[in-house]
Amino acid sequence: MSEETKIVIDSHEQLLLSLPKTNGWLGDIYLYQGFWCPSKILTNIISLQKHYQAHDQHILLASTPKSGLTWLKALVFSITNRVTYTLSATPLLTSNPHELVPFLEFTLYAHNKIPEINSTSDISLSPRLFSTHIPYVSLPESVKHSNCRVIYICRNPFDSLVSFWHFATGEGRLKYTMEEYAEKFCEGEVGFGPFWDHILGFWKESLEKPEKVLFLKYENLKEDPVFHVKKLAEFVGFPFSLEEEKQGVVEEIIKLCSLKNLKELEVNKNGKFMPNFRNKSYFRKGEVGDWVNHLSPSMVERLKKVMQEKLSNSGLTFKAVLC
Ligand SMILES: Nc1ncnc2c1ncn2[C@@H]1O[C@H](COP(=O)(O)OS(=O)(=O)O)[C@@H](OP(=O)(O)O)[C@H]1O
């Protein structure tokens, strides 16, 4: 290990020691810049903040966990690559969407490198589509100040928390009951939480800089996919031509990226994403309002109260959860 790398690791360890810490589902999580981050990811975030250079052509797909990011990745990948790949030969048929649109904060992991001074040079060579769960405040400055575009997908908090609980328990990683997890969620003490602050960070940016940050809701994408897929295509600079619309390309992309279709692919039935997670865990029911089957009346009460407190003055509402 080089002297330089040792210094970087020492300074990260010093930083971790100084931060508030609690238990998360993948080990300890640390409160950094107002958000709870798993320790290994935090190290990568700090490295990215120091070294990552966003390019104007980069497109960053962002969300809190379990808000529709897998779907968004499949759609934006298909939109931006439709000239390169026909829909019958797209890599989506053989790769999980997360492999095609890598997580910024996991890229250093994937390359099997300890974050160090020069290691982010690999990232600038990576594809133009990236994704992240990093909150807006902690994104590298170059993302905020370049012309790179950001698409944020959010989902009503009730379905998002129920979805996460199923994912993490399905992977054998979560020791909490739904009730205990809901309490942690309300307290904000979950990976990349508080949920409310995460969505508000991107929501405010999308209001101030609509040409830079597009804010989507999972529920709206489900309700009117044609409208939103066309909007996505325009936002990323790949609008559909009239000819394409007449040929039904928009509908074909929607069908290709549907939960039903992706779930049935061999790669998503039996493959794994990164060393640890089964691809099939990323595809469950995809329903709006599934929370009614899982949250008790007292949990619903508690969540509604927090939601009202946190979002009431923001103009951000969710039809699936009326407070
Ligand atoms: N293609 C497609 N269309 C519609 N819905 C989809 C799709 N792919 C995944 N899903 C549903 O999204 C939920 C997983 O959320 P994320 O993809 O954001 O997970 S992750 O944060 O990227 O790990 C999870 O929601 P639940 O079914 O409610 O658990 C998935 O089923």
UniProtKB/TrEMBL annotation:
Q: Which InterPro entries match?
A: P-loop_NTPase (IPR027417), Sulfotransferase_dom (IPR000863)
Recite the UniProt keywords alphabetically: Transferase
Catalytic activity, EC? 2.8.2.-
Q: Which Pfam families match?
A: Sulfotransfer_1
Q: What name has this protein been given in UniProt?
A: Sulfotransferase
GO molecular function terms noted in the UniProt entry: sulfotransferase activity
Does the keyword Transferase feature in the UniProt annotation? yes
List the SUPFAM superfamilies: P-loop containing nucleoside triphosphate hydrolases
Report whether Cell inner membrane shows up as a keyword of the record: no
Where the record annotates domain Sulfotransferase, the positions are: 56-315
Q: Which family does it belong to?
A: Belongs to the sulfotransferase 1 family.
Gene3D superfamilies to which the protein is assigned, alphabetical: P-loop containing nucleotide triphosphate hydrolases (3.40.50.300)
